[in-house]
C-alpha cells in the first residue's frame, strides 16, 4: 500500500482484497478489518515516514490462524526518465499459475514465477516482463496491471484470465470514466498490443507509466501518449482529493 504524506491510499480497498484472499485460501484472521487498519496506521505513524510503502504479510500457523507482519519502507520513486520516455517491455516464456490451480485474484506470496520473468526481462535488456496465459492471451506484468489505449478507449484483460485485481488499476479506470473515456475488459493478444495507440502499466509504486516498446516494436509515436499522461495527472489529482493532500 502506498502512503502519501502519511496517509494510506485506498486502505479499505486493500483490506477488502486481503480478507477475500484469506477467505479463498482458508486462513483465519483474528483481527477485524477495522482492527488491522488501526495497526497499519499506527505502524506508519511510528515509522515517521511521510512517503512510504506499507507491506503486510499474514502468516498461518498449524491451525491456519494468521499472525501479522507489518513492514513500513520509504517509497522510492521510479526514475523520472521512465515517465519522460516510457519503458520497454517483453512478453516472456514464463507462465503464471493456471486459474484452475490457484486463482491469482487471491494475493499470495508464491513469487518464483515473477522472479524468473524478471530475469528473462533483464536478459532481453528491457524494463519489465509480461505474462501470457496458457492460451496466449496477455495478462499482467510481474508487479503491475496492463492496459492499452485504442481509438480513445481504455482496454484491459479481465481478471478471469488469471491476474490480480489491482487497487491502483481500479483507481485509473475511475479516472478514465470520470473524464469521459470508454473503459472495457477484453482478452488481449500480442497483436493487440503491437497495434495499440498507447500501452500503459499501473501499480502502487508506478502509478501510471507509459510503455513505448513491446518486444522491440514501437508503440504509437514511440513516446508517452496523451491519454496515458492525462490518466497519470488524473490519478494524482484523485489521490490528492481522496486523501485531502496539498502538492
- What spatial form do the alpha-carbon principal axes imply? globular
Order of helices and strands: EEHHEEHEHEEEEHEHEEEH
Distance between the termini: 20 Å
Q: What is the overall pLDDT average?
A: 94
CATH architectural group of the largest domain: Alpha-Beta Barrel
**DSSP, total strands:** 13
Number of helices: 7
CATH superfamily of the largest domain: D-amino Acid Aminotransferase, subunit A, domain 2
Highlighted features:
single chain; 247 residues; alpha+beta; D-amino Acid Aminotransferase, Chain A, domain 1; 9-stranded mixed β-sheet; 4-stranded antiparallel β-sheet; globular
Descriptive overview:
With 247 residues, this protein is an alpha+beta fold. The protein has 2 domains: 2-76, Aminotransferase class 4, branched-chain amino acid transferase, N-terminal domain (D-amino Acid Aminotransferase, Chain A, domain 1, 2-Layer Sandwich); 80-239, Alpha-Beta Barrel (D-amino Acid Aminotransferase, Chain A, domain 2). It contains 7 helices and 13 strands. The protein has helices at 11-25, 33-47, 80-85, 112-123, 167-178, 190-194, 226-243; strands at residues 2-4, 7-8, 52-60, 66-74, 87-95, 128-132, 138-141, 145-150, 153-156, 183-185, 198-203, 207-214, 217-218. The strands form 2 sheets. Strands 5, 6, 7, 8, 9, 10, 11, 12 and 13 form a 9-stranded mixed sheet that branches. A 4-stranded antiparallel sheet has the order 2-1-3-4, with helices on one face. β5, α4 and β6 form a beta-alpha-beta unit. α5 crosses α7 (226-243). The longest helix has 18 residues, at 226-243. The radius of gyration is 18 Å and the shape is globular. It starts with a strand and ends with a helix. The relative contact order is 0.14.
Amino acid at each position: 500500500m502506498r502512503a502519501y504524506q502519511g496517509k494510506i491510499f485506498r486502505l479499505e480497498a486493500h483490506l477488502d482484497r486481503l480478507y477475500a484472499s484469506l477467505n479463498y485460501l482458508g486462513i483465519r484472521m483474528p483481527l477485524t478489518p477495522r482492527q488491522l487498519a488501526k495497526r497499519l496506521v499506527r505502524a506508519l505513524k511510528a515509522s515517521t515516514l511521510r512517503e512510504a510503502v506499507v507491506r503486510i504479510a499474514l502468516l498461518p500457523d498449524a491451525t491456519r490462524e494468521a499472525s501479522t507482519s507489518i513492514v513500513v519502507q520509504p517509497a522510492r520513486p521510479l526514475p523520472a526518465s521512465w515517465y519522460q520516455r516510457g519503458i520497454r517491455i517483453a512478453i516472456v516464456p514464463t507462465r503464471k499459475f493456471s486459474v484452475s490451480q490457484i486463482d491469482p485474484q487471491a494475493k499470495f506470496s508464491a513469487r518464483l514465477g515473477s522472479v524468473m520473468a524478471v530475469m528473462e526481462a533483464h536478459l532481453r535488456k528491457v524494463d519489465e516482463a509480461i505474462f501470457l496465459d496458457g492460451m496466449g492471451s496477455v495478462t499482467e506484468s510481474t508487479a503491475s496491471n496492463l492496459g492499452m489505449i485504442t481509438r480513445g478507449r481504455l482496454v484491459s484483460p479481465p481478471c478471469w484470465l488469471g491476474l490480480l485485481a489491482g487497487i491502483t488499476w481500479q483507481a485509473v479506470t475511475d479516472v478514465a470514466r470520470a473524464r469521459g473515456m470508454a473503459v472495457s475488459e477484453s482478452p488481449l493478444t500480442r497483436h493487440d498490443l503491437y497495434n495499440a495507440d498507447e500501452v500503459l502499466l499501473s501499480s502502487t509504486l508506478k502509478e501510471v507509466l507509459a510503455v513505448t516498446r513491446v518486444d522491440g516494436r514501437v508503440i504509437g509515436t514511440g513516446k508517452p501518449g496523451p491519454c496515458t499522461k492525462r490518466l497519470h495527472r488524473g490519478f494524482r489529482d484523485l489521490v490528492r482529493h481522496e486523501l485531502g493532500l496539498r502538492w
